[in-house]
Amino acid sequence: MQDLLEDIAARALGAEDRGKVADYIPELAKVDPNQLGISVATADGELFSAGNAQTPFSIQSISKVFVLALALGQVGEALWKRVGREPSGQAFDSILLLEREKGIPRNPFINAGALVTTDTFLGSASPREALGALIRFIRAASDQEDIHINDAVARSELETAHRNFALAHYMRSYGNLQNSPDLVLGTYCHQCAIEMTCEQLALAGRFLLDTSDAPSLVSPVRKRRINALMMTCGHYDGSGDFAFRVGLPGKSGVGGGILVIAPGRGSVAVWSPGLNGYGNSKLGTEAMEVFARKTGWSIFG
Ligand code: GLN
């Protein structure tokens, strides 16, 4: 495993096309694209890493996985009245389907759907309380204390979050947001600005493993369902492509991170800031493709 990860990281260093770093959040545009880290936390508790696996990065939409787990913990199946479970086939920040589908987003991993899960998780708490509970959940899942929100990134996104505000107001007009768009966006931008290293993220992902050694923060049924949504919706309109190339549930973020769950085997985090046309890490996806091929880890046997 160690040799494989080092080989993957070394190969990435030589890549000519590294994709394009997200620049619509000004603070993210400053990140050096010449980085790739990869970590594997196995089901039985081993940790392997290579490349820039100890460098903290902005987890962005990967936070949607943790918030979904918490929102389900709070309201259970009632969540599905407010958000669907189908891939959208649209970009992560698209507003297109919301009008046709009357303010009910397709799934919890596109931005509109994540605003609903954040609103649900927020409930009647303050953003500070909700974010505190989210950080505690991630620290418990990973057994790592040193996980924080980068306020500069949160502020940078909040100042430029015009599309996300549009989505929030649109859903609020349909009654599908309980809190004000200001409160929901304030919380959402801070959850996206959580920083983690590949090692911390791979460890945190173990809460979605189905083995007895994994942290038991959610029920087995819920783990299966969150994994199913990651498989079908975790990479936006690139979800089919990721499933085809990697064959494992994954969730990407525009910070360049990807969390991948190999049921029964382990949790993998890869990070490289340059993105492909879908807004998913370009080298991260390629690294996962090689990883899955070489290890044979797949949900398809
Ligand atoms: N914070 C980002 C946004 O809402 C998250 C998007 C992403 O990671 N794909 O635009």
From TrEMBL:
<dbReference type="GO" id="GO:0006543">
    <property type="term" value="P:L-glutamine catabolic process"/>
</dbReference>
<feature type="binding site">
    <location>
        <position position="164"/>
    </location>
    <ligand>
        <name>substrate</name>
    </ligand>
</feature>
<feature type="binding site">
    <location>
        <position position="111"/>
    </location>
    <ligand>
        <name>substrate</name>
    </ligand>
</feature>
<feature type="binding site">
    <location>
        <position position="61"/>
    </location>
    <ligand>
        <name>substrate</name>
    </ligand>
</feature>
<dbReference type="GO" id="GO:0004359">
    <property type="term" value="F:glutaminase activity"/>
</dbReference>
<comment type="subunit">
    <text>Homotetramer.</text>
</comment>
<dbReference type="Pfam" id="PF04960">
    <property type="entry name" value="Glutaminase"/>
</dbReference>
<feature type="binding site">
    <location>
        <position position="157"/>
    </location>
    <ligand>
        <name>substrate</name>
    </ligand>
</feature>
<protein>
    <recommendedName>
        <fullName>Glutaminase</fullName>
        <ecNumber>3.5.1.2</ecNumber>
    </recommendedName>
</protein>
<feature type="binding site">
    <location>
        <position position="254"/>
    </location>
    <ligand>
        <name>substrate</name>
    </ligand>
</feature>
<dbReference type="InterPro" id="IPR015868">
    <property type="entry name" value="Glutaminase"/>
</dbReference>
<comment type="similarity">
    <text>Belongs to the glutaminase family.</text>
</comment>
<keyword id="KW-0378">Hydrolase</keyword>
<dbReference type="GO" id="GO:0006537">
    <property type="term" value="P:glutamate biosynthetic process"/>
</dbReference>
<feature type="binding site">
    <location>
        <position position="236"/>
    </location>
    <ligand>
        <name>substrate</name>
    </ligand>
</feature>
<dbReference type="InterPro" id="IPR012338">
    <property type="entry name" value="Beta-lactam/transpept-like"/>
</dbReference>
<keyword id="KW-0007">Acetylation</keyword>
<feature type="binding site">
    <location>
        <position position="188"/>
    </location>
    <ligand>
        <name>substrate</name>
    </ligand>
</feature>
